[in-house]
Amino acid sequence: MNVDLLIHAACVLRVEPAEPLLQHSVAVDNGKVIDILPTDKANSRYQASHVEHCDQHILMPGFVNAHTHVAMNLLRGIADDLPLQRWLTDHIWPAEAKWLSESFVHDGSQHAIAEMLRSGTTCFNDMYLYPDITARVAQQAGIRAQIGIVVIDFPTAWAKDADEYLHKGLAVFDEFKGDSRISLSLAPHAPYTVSEEPLRRVATLSNELGLKIHIHLHETAQEVEDSVESRGVRGIEHLSNCGLLGPDLNAVHMTQLTQEEIKRLAIENASVIHCPSSNMKLASGFCPTSDLLTAGVNVALGTDGAASNNDLDMFSEMRIAAMIAKGHSGDATALPANDVLRMATINGARALGLDDTTGSISKGKAADLIAVRIDNIETTPVYDPASQIVYACGRENVEHVWVAGKPLLHHRSLTTLDEKALIKSARHWQHRIAASDAAHQNTEK
Asked: Which terminus of the chain has a smaller tally of CB atoms within 10 A, N or C?
């Protein structure tokens, strides 16, 4: 039988089911996985237009980065070692007020997508302004993405109020309706930046259009305290009152949760997006991942933006998530490797409503795959492939990336993006943004 692509691997890690398959191959045709079988049988059964020999690699599903602000790659490192509100109000929002534009979002999105592909991410969930630009960049690069229709109360270069954010965002939804790799969600920024009426409208649109809801929630103790003071209820209850608490909700951060709220999330089938690096760096708190998973809540993993992380490295997020869960609970068995690997792949796909398409290696799913090299000093010996991915491998080990069977990274080289041009562009933005940030700080003194 003729197929487009045949990948021979030392190990195929499907994620679902968890057990690894040694000396197996994956056959791909028309962008989808059509077979997973021992390599000796693959060679006799299939004739491929292209054969990739990954004899020293783990072949696994690409990562699903379930929470990003990709254009903020251009703000990486501009305001480090600050708490969330000072980080936002003194540096990030002023920088965005001056520089936010189509060109900023285009260049930042390209840079971030390149970083994610080189890190093994094949799908990302974004929340940022000019969603049309990010969607087009993702489309051109070949990566899979869910792009948020951002909603906030105050004006930006993209829109003047919540009504205009939704109006323009729904036009983006119409533009990409039916695209096999680009989907849309509704992305109200947070309960403290979006008032009640727009939140209720988001709930209505989610029901009407079948769109996921992507929102920052219970990120800090101060946020929860402010909600109780201003509304008399915590953030989760406020979202429930607005009609947003349900299976379409993707609640990001969630560092401040009671046991009753965890049970409520499980009952409502909401998903939680855990961003461990960002939460620690901004001293926001700890998401109780083990309690959430034990309760049956779908927990996915995200990097957040590079301005608060400072990278888009899902290997790092997996390792940190596992370590936090163990250290915070005092239980070394908390969040084992297979669980955290699911958070970075199939759980993320499930949160985005894409688990029938991506997130695991399975017949009929899109061939969103990565090959991770494991034959160097840092990654040998290998006793458990999942543990090796979580605790020993890094993004530098990612050698090949395919999305829908198309190679987007080949022997560490990007195939759809110009790495040298992206570095040159980032440095150009760096000089302009650094000068304006310094001037703003001097003005504020």
From this structure: C
Neighbours of 53 (CB within 10 A): 14
Of 227, 288, 294, nearest to 256 by C-alpha is 288
Which of 269-281 are b and which e, b meaning 16 or more Cβ less than 10 Å from the residue's Cβ?
ebbbbbbbbbbeb
- Name the percent of the chain lying above pLDDT 70: 98
- Residue 101: CB atoms within 10 A of its CB come to 15
Under 8 Å between Cβ of 196 and 242: yes
Nearest to 282 by CA among 89, 80, 84: 84
Q: SS3 for 130?
A: coil
Please give the full DSSP string across 214-279, using - where no structure is assigned. EEEES-SHHHHHHHHHHHSS-HHHHHHHTT--STTEEEEE--S--HHHHHHHHHHT-EEEE-HHHH
DSSP code of 61? Answer: E
For the chain, what is the radius of gyration of the CA atoms?
21
φ and ψ of 188, to 5 deg: -60, 130
CA distance 379 to 374: 5
Q: What is the DSSP letter of 62?
A: P
Determine contact, residues 270/249, Cβ cutoff 8 Å.
yes
Q: Where are the alpha helices (DSSP H) in 100-190?
A: 102-118, 131-141, 162-176
H or E element at residue 292: helix 289-295
Are 106 and 137 within 8 A, CB to CB?
yes
Across the range 5-18, mean pLDDT stands at 97
CB atoms within 10 A of CB 216: 25
- Residues 341 and 329: their CA atoms lie apart, in Å, by 19
b/e map 339-372, b = 16+ CB within 10 Å: bbbbbbbbbbbbbbbbbebbbbbbeebbbbbbbb
Structure-block tokens of residue 143: 């990566």
Query: From CA 16, how far away is CA 215, in angstroms rounded?
Result: 28
Instruction: State the average pLDDT over residues 331-348.
Output: 97
- Quote the Cα angle for 77-73-352, to 5°: 125
CA 376, 381, 383 angle in degrees (round to 5)?
135
Q: Give pLDDT tens digits for 151-173.
A: 999 999 999 999 999 999 999 99
